[in-house]
Model the fold of this input.
Amino acid sequence: MEFTLPAETRQWRDELRRFLAAELPPGFSGSDDYFDDEAQLPFARQFMRKLGDRRWLAPAWPERFGGMGKTPIEQLVLNEELAYHRAPHGGRLFTLGIVGPTLLIHANDEQKERWLPKMASGEEWWCQGFSEPGSGSDLASMQTHAVRDGDDWVINGTKIWSSNAHAADKMMVLARTNQGEPKHKGISAFVVDMKSPGVTVAPIDNMAYRRDFNQTFFDDVRVPAANLFGGEGQGWYAATTTLDFERSNIAAISGARRTVHDLIAWAKERRPGGRPWDKPAVRDRLSELYIEAEIGRLIAYRTVWMQARGEVPNAEASIGKVWFAMLGIKVANAGVDLMGPYGQLTRGSKWAQLQGRVQMSYLLAVAGPIGGGTAEIQRNIIAQRGFGLPRG
Ligand SMILES: Cc1cc2nc3c(=O)[nH]c(=O)nc-3n(C[C@H](O)[C@H](O)[C@H](O)COP(=O)(O)OP(=O)(O)OC[C@H]3O[C@@H](n4cnc5c(N)ncnc54)[C@H](O)[C@@H]3O)c2cc1C
Done:
């Protein structure tokens, strides 16, 4: 693996940093995960359009679909800088990190031309409808189904934990199109306009009192046949592609890494009880996290480096997923321990430290080992596909 970035990629990083310094209002701070607070959504939309106008949302996509034909490494640098500088998320992970790359592989040319440019311009936000109340890890057991009726498919069922569905224009939906087939077969992938009659998005507040995800209901939702992609009954291939992309993103590590840097700076400040950094136990704990954040970064770089060589990271992406999820929890726990009662205060309190970030991360990081496939499932993948161990 080449550890040094080429000169033009370093220039691209500098250009991004200048853009972020100019465009992010002083004191603006997005969250460490993949979501914007609802109050930040209008700014997130504007910000996405500014990036889209420069073709900076999906630089690695082909130019005809709104990209710049850059490499996956340059895309990684973009994602890393945006997350490190806590720019708005704008549903980027779901639109451009997960669904877009899946469409690039599985949709036909007409569909790509119809859908991808609006993703790349920041005009449309997308979400992902896979999980159901009875189907998460065992996704293939899903019950949502679609029946062909003339030029349409008619979808009935429900999806749960649909991240950003309340802000999204379209959803990638998996539905069963052939009940008689074994469970991994007979599933098809559709694109559903969220404004279609029969689509209802109901909020689910998480324990940080934030509306990041939803339950989505489909009651006789008519979807044009031209919105089925990847082939009838072939939806499982699109699903597994999607999940591989979902696990290889760098935003999580970059957000946690930034918080570690902020905690170190915080601990070095002098305050009435003394400088926390002067205590060996504090230095040890933060140094350990600093190292783990650097390792996580290298894991993410390795995953994307494989993609740049045309390989499909699989166990490698799962290693990253577990590492990032656990690091997020460790960083939040360390922050709360370090700050004591101050670490429990929310953004807005005059006593809150680091804009209440530690308190928010403490509540949100719990979801890290669940979303996008649980840590246990990732460990199964690492064991079976990485080490070649037999299925239990
Ligand atoms: C923040 C967040 C955002 C999400 N966003 C979306 C989204 O946008 N779209 C979407 O479709 N879904 C989304 N999800 C859902 C997510 O993909 C599922 O929660 C996840 O796949 C786990 O499914 P489940 O919740 O049904 O748990 P289950 O699958 O029921 O698992 C319960 C427990 O059993 C364990 N387990 C299950 N099977 C095995 C096994 N074979 N071996 C070992 N242990 C096992 C699991 O690890 C877990 O601990 C999101 C979830 C979160 C937390």
Q: What stands out?
A: Residues 127-131, 136-137, 159, 161-163, 213, 367, 370-374, 376-377, 380 surround flavin-adenine dinucleotide (CB under 6 Å). Residues 44 and 327 are 26 Å apart (CA to CA).
